[in-house]
């Protein structure tokens, strides 16, 4: 059976990171969550690349930047889910954009 997937409608989360910038815990929907697996970086081509490659013919060669994280999180009450986080413009505030339960 596949996990249920739902868009999170850009719900804010306060995120704490380790010294390397990887998320380790967060507050989301009024609950405390721990990151319980190694987060995966979500990358996208840098914005200026589109000017050089408007037809996206060379996206595989585009420089990439970190735009978010996919991680497994476990709440204090034992609930677990996979979250996609996107940069909200503030290093400690991120947006939950997708939830896999």
Index terms:
101 residues, mainly beta, elongated
Walk me through this protein's architecture.
It is a single chain. The chain is elongated. A hairpin with a 5-residue loop joins strand 1 and strand 2 (23-28). It has one helix and seven strands, in the order ββββαβββ. It has a six-stranded antiparallel β-barrel with strand order 1-2-3-5-6-7. Helices cover 4% and strands 60% of the residues. It has one domain (5-50, 62-100). The mean pLDDT is 88. The protein starts with a strand and ends with a strand.
The strand line-up of the biggest sheet is 1-2-3-5-6-7
Number of separate structural domains? 1
Beta-strand share of residues: over 45%
Which sequence of SSEs, written as H and E, runs from N to C?
A: EEEEHEEE
**CA-based shape:** elongated
Residues in helices, as a percent range? under 10%
Q: Can you describe this structure in just a few lines?
A:
The chain is mostly beta strands and 101 residues long. Helix content is 4%, strand content 60%. Strand 5 and strand 6 (80-90) form a beta hairpin.
């Amino acid at each position: 059976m596949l996990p249920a997937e739902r868009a999170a409608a850009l719900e804010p989360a306060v995120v704490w990171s380790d010294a390397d910038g990887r998320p380790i815990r967060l507050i989301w929907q009024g609950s405390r969550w721990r990151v319980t697996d190694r987060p995966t970086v979500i990358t996208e081509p840098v914005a200026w690349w589109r000017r050089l490659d408007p037809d996206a013919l060379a996206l595989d060669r585009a420089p990439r930047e970190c735009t978010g994280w996919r991680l497994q999180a476990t709440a204090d009450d034992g609930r677990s889910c996979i979250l996609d986080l996107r940069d909200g413009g503030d290093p400690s505030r991120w947006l939950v954009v997708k939830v896999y339960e």
